[in-house]
């Protein structure tokens, strides 16, 4: 998070500069209070979006949803000042190129080295996220009920709430170590140690996870918490590691590193951990403990190299830097704006309509026989389509009405949620036919495109309305509420599946039929216990269909009666109405 600056009496009131000796970076903020542009910043909006994405979502989609709902993981990288500066520089560069045929300078070796470092740091961050938000819930599904999975889903909350402590990370550090390394080094040491702890206790924790669900939730919540803190520091370091002309490549480094680490821990690990996949290809099965030990060693190795061989340039911080207290006061001032409050309400409830689909559908498919190796194949095929979809969605959302594609994409997402429910209901008995598998891939890709359009559209709107003077804080606040809108319902959705489900264990004897109603015959463990007493689990009512119907009904009603009219009013507001008055 880049620091937002207040005026200092000793400085020119119209020009404040932030310098770093590690890079020739000058971020200049001017006093716009007397010359606010009332236009929607259209001349450079498209450039800034297409060249430097403000937020990157890690959202590997499985057939009709993902238990981790990773769409909600949105990472703010550049503040509004840098995006505006980048957009203007691009416009100036285009003008010079068309007029005088200016040549494009090659990237320096220093910037190439900086990009390599950023990719590695983001990869380390992606590894624990892929475990906590991706593969582990699939593994636990074999032993836990949906209510217990809802408890474990709380581990994703820290990534959506990192705004609460990001001002502390940005302003508190040890000068002899470096502003960013003061946080990155200890966070990565803790992440590596936590992964070693899990690897050493994986047998105890995973053998009977129902008895250790709270310890598992605590450990993985801590893992996500420290990864989110490392992300805050790396995002800030990216602004000074790269030179000004190559600053837009920071988002590229984030995309490559974070997605590589995430997919390695989610898609690749799930496939290599599958017994069927290992037997089919004649390779040894990759155990969770082995993978965790390897990742912890990687984390320690990079941290050792970062500590002794990578020097961070000193950043000059003076009285004009925004203090922690000032940042929190700014956040509160933004939240007091009436139209911001309306936008918060929209974000808080907008994703409920497809929460059952994204949190439960893929788990239901695995429960009905979809293999992990099939899951990995579908996700790998879907990934390049996400990238292409993001590019075209960015162009579509770059006009004066970025909420138009966001609103339009609600209907296909709700339709895909309904179709997913039907797929689960009529899911064929394994082995799956080739035609049905292709149908799942097409369904996943189209659903992913609709989700990508929504993400890019709302990100473009956030970029358009954020106050340039406090852009970093403004953007992070809006992204926080967007993330929370997809995080908080997951616990209640998973709890609701068990609440509405009714299953019992039927035990038959030789000359009589004894009907035993099991307290829990929903998870694989409950079914196994029923099987051990020569019983059969009978599901009279599957709560998934009830929760799915409730979510979709609410989603349609909330969309028609609140989101659409509110979004149109918010989109029509002039940009200056989103500004806060300086104190």
Describe this structure in words.
The protein is mainly alpha-helical. The chain is built from 21 helices and seven strands. Helix content is 64%, strand content 6%. Strands 6-5-7 form a three-stranded antiparallel beta sheet. β5 and β6 (513-516) form a beta hairpin. The two termini are 22 Å apart. The relative contact order is 0.16. Mean pLDDT is 77; it is low at 1-104.
SSE topology:
Blueprint: E1 16-20, E2 25-29, H1 42-51, E3 55-57, E4 74-76, H2 80-100, H3 109-140, H4 146-152, H5 157-160, H6 166-171, H7 181-207, H8 213-241, H9 249-273, H10 275-281, H11 288-309, H12 324-335, H13 338-349, H14 355-367, H15 372-396, H16 403-408, H17 410-425, H18 434-465, H19 471-500, E5 502-508, E6 513-516, H20 524-532, E7 535-541, H21 543-572
Antiparallel strand pairs: 1-2, 3-4, 5-6, 5-7
Shape: globular
For the biggest sheet, the summary is:
3 strands, antiparallel
Largest beta sheet: strand ordering: 6-5-7
What oligomeric state do the depicted chains represent? single chain
Into which percentage range does the β-strand content fall?
5-15%
Could you tell me the number of beta strands?
A: 7
Q: Cα-atom Rg, whole angstroms?
A: 25 Å
Counted by DSSP, the helix tally is 21
List low-confidence stretches: 1-104
The secondary-structure element order is EEHEEHHHHHHHHHHHHHHHHHHEEHEH
Terminal residue distance: 22 Å
What structural category do the secondary elements indicate? mainly alpha
Average pLDDT, all residues: 77
Helix content: 55-70%
């Amino acid at each position: 998070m880049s620091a937002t600056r207040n005026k200092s009496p000793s400085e020119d009131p119209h020009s404040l500069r932030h310098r770093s000796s590690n890079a020739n970076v000058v971020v200049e903020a001017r006093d716009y209070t007397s010359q606010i542009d009332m236009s929607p910043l259209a001349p450079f909006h498209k450039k800034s979006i297409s060249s430097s994405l403000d937020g990157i979502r890690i959202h590997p989609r499985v057939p009709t949803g993902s238990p981790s709902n990773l769409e909600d993981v949105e990472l703010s990288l550049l503040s509004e000042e840098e995006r505006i500066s980048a957009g203007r520089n691009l416009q100036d560069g285009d003008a010079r190129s068309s007029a005088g045929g200016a040549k494009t300078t090659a990237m320096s070796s220093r910037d190439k080295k900086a990009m390599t470092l950023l990719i590695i740091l983001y990869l380390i961050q992606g590894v624990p996220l892929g475990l906590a938000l991706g593969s582990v819930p699939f593994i636990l599904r074999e032993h836990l009920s949906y209510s217990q999975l809802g408890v474990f889903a709380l581990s994703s909350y820290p990534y959506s709430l990192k705004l609460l402590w990001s001002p502390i990370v940005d302003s508190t550090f040890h000068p002899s170590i470096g502003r960013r390394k003061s946080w990155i080094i200890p966070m990565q040491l803790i992440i590596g140690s936590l992964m070693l702890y899990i690897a050493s206790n994986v047998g105890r924790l995973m053998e009977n996870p129902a008895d250790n669900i709270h310890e598992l939730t605590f450990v993985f919540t801590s893992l996500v918490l420290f990864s989110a803190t490392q992300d805050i520091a790396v995002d800030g370091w990216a602004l000074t590691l790269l030179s000004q002309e190559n600053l837009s490549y920071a988002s590229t480094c984030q995309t490559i590193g974070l997605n590589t680490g995430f997919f390695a821990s989610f898609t690749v690990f799930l496939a290599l951990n599958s017994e069927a996949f290992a037997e089919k290809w004649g390779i040894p099965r990759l155990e969770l403990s082995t993978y965790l030990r390897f990742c912890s060693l990687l984390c320690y190795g990079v941290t050792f190299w970062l500590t002794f061989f990578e020097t961070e340039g000193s950043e000059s911080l003076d009285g004009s830097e925004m203090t922690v207290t000032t940042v929190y006061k700014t956040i509160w001032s933004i939240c007091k704006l009436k139209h911001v409050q309306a936008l918060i309400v929209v974000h808080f409830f907008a994703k409920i309509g497809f929460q059952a689909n994204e949190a439960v559908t893929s788990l239901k498919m695995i429960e009905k026989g979809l293999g992990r190796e099939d899951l990995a194949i579908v996700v790998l095929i879907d990934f390049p389509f996400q990238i292409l979809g993001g590019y075209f969605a960015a162009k579509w959302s770059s006009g004066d009405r970025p909420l138009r594609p966001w609103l339009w994409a609600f209907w296909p997402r709700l339709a895909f949620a309904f179709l997913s429910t039907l797929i689960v209901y009529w899911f064929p008995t394994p082995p799956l036919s080739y035609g049905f598998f292709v149908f799942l891939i097409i369904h996943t890709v189209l659903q992913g495109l609709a989700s990508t359009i929504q993400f890019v559209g709302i990100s473009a709107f956030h970029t358009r309305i954020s106050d340039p003077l406090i852009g970093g804080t403004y953007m992070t606040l809006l992204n926080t509420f967007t993330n929370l809108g997809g995080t908080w319902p997951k616990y209640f959705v998973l709890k609701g599946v068990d609440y509405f489900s009714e299953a019992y264990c039927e035990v038959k004897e030789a000359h009589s039929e004894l009907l035993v109603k099991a307290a829990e015959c929903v998870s694989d463990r409950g079914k196994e216990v029923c099987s051990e007493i020569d019983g059969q689990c009978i599901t009279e009512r599957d709560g998934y269909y009830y929760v799915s119907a409730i979510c979709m009904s609410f989603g349609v009603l909330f969309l028609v009666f609140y989101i659409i009219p509110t979004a149109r009013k918010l989109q029509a507001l002039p940009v200056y109405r989103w500004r806060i008055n300086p104190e």
